[in-house]
Structures are given as C-alpha cells and as structure tokens.
Amino acid sequence: MSRQSRRVLVLGLNYPPEQTGISPYTGAMARGIVGRGYETRALTAHPHYPEWEVRQGYGQWARTEGVDGVRVTRLRHYVPSRPSGLRRAFSELTFGVRQATRRWGGPDAVVAVSPALISTLVAQVRARLLHRNTPFVVWVQDLYSLGLKETGQPDGLTVRMMVRLEGLVLRRATRVVVIHDRFARRVHEDFGVPLDRIDVVRNWTHLPSTAPVERIEARAALGWSVDETIVLHAGNMGVKQGLGNVVEAARLAHEQKHAMRFVFLGGGSEREHLIAQAGDLGTVTFLDALSDTEFASALQAADVLLVNEKPGVAEMAVPSKLTSYFAAGRPVLAATDRSGITAEEIGRSCAGVVVPAGDPQALLDGALQIAFDSAAADAMGAAGRRFRDTVLDEETAIDAFDALLTRVIDGDDLLSRVPEPANRDHAH
Questions:
Q1: Residue 110 needs a FRET pair 20 to 30 A away by CA distance; which of 4, 125, 145, 270 works?
Q2: DSSP reduced 3-state for 372
Q3: Measured in Å, how far apart are the chain's first and last C-alpha atoms?
Q4: DSSP state, 81?
Q5: What is the pLDDT of residues 379-397, one digit of tens each?
Q6: CA-based Rg of the chain, rounded to a whole angstrom?
Q7: Nearest to 365 by CA among 243, 260, 240, 272
Q8: How big is the CA angle at 264 (ends 262 and 269), to the nearest 5 degrees?
C-alpha cells in the first residue's frame, strides 16, 4: 500500500490549541505523519485543559477543521468544572461515546492516546465490533491506574476496577507505545503485555527552536528584577503536582529574606486554591498562559525551572514540561521522589538538582544552591540542551511512528493482528 493511500485515525481527548500536557505531542505526531504521506484524521474534544472550561469560540456539538494538514473533528462532551472522581470518569465516558458513534471513515490504523483510558476502552470496543482487522495502537502517556494510587486514592474497588480496565485495554491493543523504558517494564510486569508488543518512543520538545533571548529585556517585559532569583513552574497546576509545597517554600523565602520569587505560569484545577494559599505573599506571582514564543522567552529568562511532584508520585508519568525545560538551557530543580522517573531523567541529563518531594525548606535550599553557583547553573542548562538535542528529538520520534504504522498496516509485524484478550487478572 502506498503511503498516500494510508489512512490513520487519531483518537485523543486533548489536541492543539491546548498548550500543556498531552495535547502538543498528539498534535505534533498527527502533523508529523501527514508529512510522511499519511492521510490523517483526528477525533478529539474541544479545547478545555487545563482550565476545565471549554474555550471561547468552541463548544459546538461537532466542528471539523483543518489543522496542519490533519482533518480535526472536535466533539462536544461533558466537561466538569472540578475534575475529580466520578465527574472525570463520566467526562471520559461521554467523550468515548461521542467518538464511538462518529463515522471513522475506514482507517487503515487507529492510534488512541491514553489517558483518557475510559474513552480509549469505548473506542476499542467499537473497533473490535466494526473494524476487527484494523490495527489498534494505544499510545500511553500516563499510566492511569498507577496515577490513582500515587495521588493518594485508597486501594479500593475503584482502583482495582481501573487496574483491570487498563490491563484489558493494553492487552487487547495491537501495539502499545510508551514514552519511557520504565513504562515499558511496568506495562509488561503489571499488565502482562509481551515486551515484543511494546514500543518506546520518547516525548520530544514540542516548542519551535528559538534564538537565545536577551535575558535582561525578557525579564523586564515580565516584571522580573535582575536582582531577584526567579524560580519558574510552568504548566498544569493539578493534584499530582502538589504545588502547595512551592507556596510554602516561597513563604520561607519571604521569612528568611531571600531575594527570590516563585512564579506559577499556566492554569489548572488547583490554581485558585494556590492563589488563596499564597494570599498577599510578595514572593509568589501567577501568570496566565503565554504564546509559544513568549513561553520560550520566559523559560530562558528564569533562573531556575521547577518540577514539583506530590510525595508518592514516582512512576505514573514523565513530566512533559521537562522537554521544554531542557530546550531552554536553564537549570532544573526537581522536588520529587529520588527513586522515580523524574529524578532519573534529571540524573541522566545532568541538567539539574533533585530534592525530596514535600519538603519546602529542601526546595528553597535547592533553589539557593543553583542561584549561588552561576557556573554550575550554566553547565546544567547546557547539559539539558544537549540531552534534548540527542535524546528528545522530534524527527526521531516521528520516524519511529512512521516505521510502526508501516509495519502494522502492511502486515509486516507478526503481531499486527488485534490480539484476543488474555485470561488474566492483574489487580493487586
């Protein structure tokens, strides 16, 4: 089959113009395979993340548009203002039903992005009923059931049910694509997916390459003084980020009279709570989302780029912000579990400093350590950029997707037939 006649359907809850989380990768992958000659269509939701509110101008029952050569159909679904528990599950279910009842147009392969796990399950049921011989690839960005455990959900019926559902979805997939080697191990060991059905494709830096900025001018445009240390957290403000720890570090900086400012850039379900927690604290600033160019400039202008994770979060995800942080060439401070994936990424890249999660004084000390040694900070920033250029390259990732889709569509992959579910129970 020629590339021009290959049709790929991408299913995912998040898609550009959303700027954070999974969306930039889904959009870039779809755009990338268009550039490799695939006819690509995406079924997605209206932009609503991380604000959990459908953006102005969107919200129609269905809306189809062209985005970077991809035919994108946006479907209205239930968007909860507070995305927790049953509300979030129902949100995913309504989106899954919308996807499953929409015309798919006879794709040669389907790529479903998880999370959202529940909508992926619904789409997979439709695929098995109506497109049984069509390869169904699941691209795992976060491990859903592990996330429930690591963010403090009690190991009750809900968690056990999600473990079973996630295992069912992954074992039924033609191929499972994961974003880290440790994900591959967990998918194999926890859910019984054979290693030869798992592909590792690392996430990449989705921001366009930008020239180095004049940092003094960039800081002035943002209202940042050259005499203060700027610690910038960019991206989603949700439960798993545990950002109350950062507000408390800012409070300590104020009490100890350090010339330091902690900046929260973006939105999320916890933003209003964090604003209330910070009150009139002068060492904290909140910024709304910026354009890609302004965002890249802000990252370069900061002194320290912060990843903060809730205590216990270790294996569920690779923070997407790391790819943008590395591209900025600034040192990274990670407040996280030292045995987790984030700490491993910082260690492999030599791009920053790791401190324990949930310890405001340790976070402040880490920021001061970086601020007081400019030569080491510059070396860490340069190391992060090298890691981005050599490990987290977009063209390499798109080439991997191209090769995978070629195998499953052309039948060269011995496992390209949709497998029957194994009779296993991995709930534990």
A1: 145
A2: coil
A3: 44
A4: S
A5: 999 999 999 988 888 999 9
A6: 21
A7: 260
A8: 140
Number of H helices, E strands in the chain: 15, 14
Task: Give how far the C-alpha of residue 423 lies from the chain's centroid of Cα atoms, to the nearest Å.
Answer: 31
Q: What is the DSSP letter of 314?
A: S
Q: In what order do the strands lie in the sheet with 198-200?
A: 62-67, 70-75, 39-45, 7-11, 109-114, 136-140, 175-178, 198-200
Q: What is the pTM of this model?
A: 0.80
Q: Find all residues with CB under 8 Å of 190, minimum gap 6, and list them.
A: 146, 163, 167, 426
Structural tokens at position 356: 């324990």
> CA-CA distance, 204 to 211, in Å (whole number)?
18
Report whether 118 contacts 11 (CB < 8 A).
no
The neighbour count for residue 199, using CB atoms within 10 Å, is 17
Say if CB 21 and CB 14 are below 8 A apart: yes
pLDDT tens profile 56-85 = 999 999 999 999 999 999 999 999 988 777
DSSP-assigned states of every residue in 327-338: HHT--EEEES-T
Where helices occur in 72-143 by DSSP H, the ranges are 85-100, 117-130
Q: Are 384 and 352 in contact (CB under 8 A)?
A: yes
- Examine residue 194 and say whether the peptide bond preceding it is cis (omega within 30 degrees of 0): no
CB 336 within 8 Å of CB 309: yes
Q: Which of 48, 41, 59, 40 is nearest to 14 (CA)?
A: 48
Q: Which of 241, 368, 234, 383 is nearest to 298 (CA)?
A: 234
User: Could you say which DSSP state residue 133 is in?
Assistant: T
Tokens standing for residue 266 = 């973006």
Quote the pLDDT of residue 269. 86
> What are the tokens at 7?
């049709």
Give phi and psi for 43, each to the nearest 5.
-110, 120
